Amino acid sequence: QVQVVESGGGLVQPGGSLRLSCEVSGITLSARNMAWFRQVLGKEREFVAAITWTTTMIDYADFVKGRFTISRDNAKNTGYLQMNSLKPEDTAVYYCAAGGWGTTIDKWNYWGQGTQVTVSS
Q1: How confident is the model over 96-121, as a mean pLDDT?
Q2: Rounded to whole angstroms, how far apart are CA atoms 33 and 119?
Q3: Do residues 109 and 1 make contact, with C-beta atoms less than 8 angstroms apart?
Q4: Which of 54, 57, 61, 120 has its CA 20 to 30 A from that of 30?
Q5: How many other CB atoms sit within 10 Å of the CB of residue 90?
Q6: In Å, how far are 27, 33, 59, 114 from 77, measured between CA atoms?
Q7: Is 17 helix (H, G, I), strand (E, B) or coil?
Q8: What pLDDT score does 29 carry?
Q9: CB 114 within 8 A of CB 95
Q10: d(C-alpha 96, C-alpha 81), whole Å
Q11: Contacts of range 39-46, beta carbons closer than 8 Å, 24 or more positions apart
Q12: Distances in Å between the alpha carbon of 81 and those of 20, 42, 86?
């Protein structure tokens, strides 16, 4: 059974940083790409970043370029999203996805339960 578990969310002040982690079990992560999406209550889930298992392809949404960095450690079956220069508008539930590729939710097969990120002073 595939499990995707996010961690690392929390409350941070504007301009601060957080690192989210995504641990995947039940599948070989090296054979799967992974991505981060986020969702604000009442809005659609939106693409944030994605990375292939070889790390040869990385994609970011325009609104996070230069501020967020996606990475992974296949030996640990874990992916990361380093978020710097956070803004209040980055407040959302952040979801990790595995097993797919693309910028829409229908392109991904496995999802975590999400971790809340709140950016506020």
Answers
A1: 95
A2: 28
A3: no
A4: 61
A5: 22
A6: 9, 11, 20, 17
A7: coil
A8: 59
A9: yes
A10: 9
A11: 39/92, 39/93, 39/95, 39/114, 40/91, 40/92, 40/93, 45/95, 45/105
A12: 5, 24, 12
**Averaged pLDDT, 92-99:** 96
8 Å CB contact between 36 and 96: yes
Q: What pLDDT score does 42 carry?
A: 94
The whole-angstrom separation of Cα 25 and Cα 3 is: 5
Percent of the chain at pLDDT above 70?
A: 97
CA distance 34 to 72: 9
Owner of token pair 């939106």:
46
| Nearest Cα residue to 96 out of 112, 109, 74 | 112
Give SS3 for 8.
Answer: coil
Q: Transcribe 36-63 into DSSP letters.
A: EEEE-TTS--EEEEEE-TTSS-EEE-GG
pLDDT tens for each residue of 66-80? 999 999 998 898 999
Q: How confident is the model at residue 30 (pLDDT cuts 50, 70, 90)?
A: low
